[in-house]
Amino acid sequence: MSTVLIWGAFFGSLVFTPHEARGLALLGSFIVATIAQAAVMIVAATIWAIGAPAEANAPADERDRAVGRRATGFAYLTLVLGVVAVIVWLHLGLHGPDTIFALVAAFILAEAVRFGATALGYRRAA
To answer: How far is 8 from 104, CA to CA, in rounded Å?
Structure first.
């Protein structure tokens, strides 16, 4: 959820930023979003480890590995489709810093899909 909120805010601000002002002007926002995402992930992992130390240090069992493989597969497919979409969009007129933002969006979407597929995988297995 944090991925959607943090990066949704970043890309929302990108939509409202004039095309001429994109590029290095949004580097600060990108760095803030990256640090915020890392901080949220670190805090969540720390809380999880404190709340269930035995579970946090337990090796992955077969179910964990299966859920992870399936989630990674969905994320990889999402990433490939996103990169293909960016390539097609390049031929339709995408240029400049928007190309980088589109590729970053493809990676972030793939990561959000991986998180979501992992959550759904555990939900279905329970």
So the answer is: 12
Q: In the structure encoding, which two tokens stand for residue 65, read together?
A: 């590995």
Specify the pLDDT at position 125.
65
pLDDT top residue among 93 and 54: 93
* Distance separating alpha carbons of residues 79 and 105, to the nearest angstrom: 9
Contact 17, 26 (CB under 8 A): yes
Range 24-41 average pLDDT: 90
Sign (positive or negative) of CA dihedral 10, 16, 20, 21: negative
For residue 42, count other CB atoms closer than 10 A to its CB: 10
How many angstroms separate the CA atoms of 7 and 37, rounded? Answer: 8
